[in-house]
Amino acid sequence: MSVMTIRLPDAQHERLRQLAKTRGVSVNKVIEELTTRALTEFDLETRFRTRAARGDPEAGLRLLDRLDQEDARQS
């Protein structure tokens, strides 16, 4: 495990403390949770862009059309 020092404005640090207290966890745990979310979003976007670059745009549009048709039938 690594140790990292970050600089935050006092008001932001206080809000993080309040958030942690509300959740019943440490500020460290809140930062860990937020970091995990950010990295998960980054990984998903990276995978999506990689797949999109390898994909067939016409096939993707056909798939979206099929999904739209199914959605219209369910409505």
How would you describe this structure in keywords?
mainly alpha; 0% strand; 75 residues; single chain; 80% helix
Can you describe what's shown?
The chain is an all-alpha fold and 75 residues long. The chain is built from three helices and no strands. The chain has helices at residues 10-23, 27-54, 57-74. It is elongated.
As residue ranges, the low-confidence spans are: none
Strand content: under 5%
Work out the oligomeric state of the chains in this entry: single chain
Number of strands: 0
Residues in helices, as a percent range: over 70%
Provide a quick synopsis of the model:
The protein has three helices and no strands. The chain has 75 residues and is mainly α.
Topology diagram in text:
Elements lengths: L9 H14 L3 H28 L2 H18 L1
Helix pairs in contact: 1-2
